[in-house]
Specification:
Helices cover 43% and strands 12% of the residues. It is an alpha+beta fold and 311 residues long. The radius of gyration is 24 Å and the shape is elongated.
Length: 311
């Protein structure tokens, strides 16, 4: 609202029309509209890939050249977020156990690229604090230090509509789904402790190999033993049993977004999604735009505005 008169006029308008006001723009009241139902009905990645026209409409249908409504109606705000890991929630129901335990080991030992728990996830987080990606680093942080801060991009939409938007983006950009091997329901503190100790003793190969001697050296430098770290990981995991249980209601990872650019760069993918959200490119709301000239209710409700002006 640009000034007090507009604010009073908006309040008067609400009393007359009993509508929720979004904003005044270019002399018009833009009223809140229902979210595009496809964002929740067709929210899973397989559904989006099976309905390319729906995915295309969601991913591009809010653009001004397509949507005849005012361009700001589909704009979604985003903001940087830096929040304790234990305030976040799982957006998917399964994980790769070895992957997050390996990351936790690196966090305990401050083994590059990790300087400890927490840090920038480069992930998207919903308004109601559900993770849309970045789950392995999040769980690793949770079992090392649940209070450690994690950074990302928060989108001002709740989990389900945001999932629909991101999966539409994934389908339109021809990104292939990713898988995970173990449901949260099968993870236990004792199992994590056991596997933690095994990986400390054996090290691992793969894309980011680490020799056991390097792990031992790093832990010695931090003044912590394998057993102490493994017990801490178990204790922290067990402390959040309710959070892991709630994850059972979320989709498998294979139904989740893959936010990467054409080269596989996740950071650039997040930036593109952020730009599309802030420019109103996604078709976030239904097409039955409701507008009224801002001047219309002024005469009808002038006494209300005047009364509030005297308060």
């Amino acid at each position: 609202m640009r000034n007090r008169d507009e604010k009073l006029l908006a309040e008067a308008y609400l009393r007359v029309y009993e509508k929720k006001l979004l904003r005044i723009k270019n002399g018009y009241f833009i009223l809140e509209r229902q979210l595009n139902p496809a964002l929740t009905i067709n929210k899973l990645l397989s559904q989006m890939k099976g309905n390319p026209q729906v995915a295309q409409q969601i991913a591009k249908g809010g653009a001004p050249e397509v949507d005849k409504a005012p361009p700001e109606d589909d704009v979604v705000q985003t903001q940087p977020i830096n929040i304790a890991a234990n305030q976040l929630n799982a957006g998917q129901n399964n994980m790769d156990e070895d992957k997050f335990i390996q990351q936790a080991i690196q966090m305990f030992g401050k083994i590059p690229p990790f300087k400890g728990p927490g840090g920038d996830l480069g992930a998207i987080i919903s308004k109601d604090l559900y993770m849309m990606d970045g789950h392995h680093r999040w769980v690793a942080t949770m079992i090392v230090n649940p209070q450690a801060l994690l950074g990302g991009t928060q989108v001002m939409l709740d989990y389900e509509p945001l999932l629909g938007i991101l999966n539409a983006w994934t389908a339109v950009n021809n990104k292939q789904p990713k898988t995970a091997t173990k449901p949260f329901s099968q993870l236990t503190g004792n199992g994590i402790k056991k596997r933690f100790l095994e990986l400390c003793q054996s090290g691992w190969q793969g894309k980011y190999p680490l020799l056991p001697e390097k792990i031992k050296q790093a832990f010695d430098q931090q003044g912590i033993t394998f057993e102490q770290a493994a017990e801490q990981a178990k204790r922290n995991f067990d402390a959040f049993a309710k959070k892991w249980g709630e994850a059972a209601n979320r989709p498998d990872k294979v139904e989740m977004p893959v936010i990467e650019d054409k080269t596989g760069d996740a950071n650039k993918g997040v930036e593109q999604v952020k730009t599309d959200l802030e420019q109103g490119t996604f078709d976030v709301v239904t097409s039955n735009t409701q507008q009224q000239p801002a001047q219309q209710p002024q005469q009808a409700q002038a006494p209300v505005a005047q009364q509030q002006a005297r308060r």
